[in-house]
Amino acid sequence: MTKRPSNAKAPKRVVELFAGVGGFRLGLERAGGFRVVYSNQWEPGRKRQHAAEIYTARFGEAHFDNKDIATVEEVPECDVLVGGFPCQDYSVASTLKNSRGLVGKKGVLWWQIHRLLSKAKVPPAYLVLENVDRLLGSPVGQRGRDLAVMLRSLDLLGYAVEWRVINAAEHGMPQRRRRVFRSDTSAEPRCTKPRARPT
Predict the structure, then answer these.
(1) Is 78 a catalytic residue?
(2) What is the pTM for the complete model shown?
(3) Catalytic-role residue among 36, 87, 125, 161
(4) With pLDDT > 70 as the criterion, what percentage of the chain qualifies?
């Protein structure tokens, strides 16, 4: 086995939530310098967990959890947390009338990411979160409110947030797939308490 040079940086530890079939992991492994220490994928109401089966067939079962994220008490300490939280309540696959945003059955799952971040003894220094671009206009009656709530909740946890709409077609993929990516950096690395609300 080749020994790592002593001056080489250790790979960044990654926690992957709502892992799907492993898109984030594949990208990070191709980029290099990242090591997944925990991943979770669960599709409620399904006997057969197709995405989890594909994920484990590709990446193996080490550090993989196939259980309801609401039952996950904590995740391992990590440098980066990534997640593509469920999009059904924001997606164009749903009618505008039925798009429930943050209060929808799947939309509320965003708060599971927030809960795990809030409980972390040592919060990750970086977050990379992804969803459909219709999130920007959600919910219909108060366009943009859901994203604003998410951004503010991350700000209160001490993260400085940037977001962009990225179209996969502009990066060599054979389809137009527009997604909102949020990159969040801890403004106070190693902070252990949420930032106080302004009075």
Answers:
(1) no
(2) 0.75
(3) 87
(4) 64
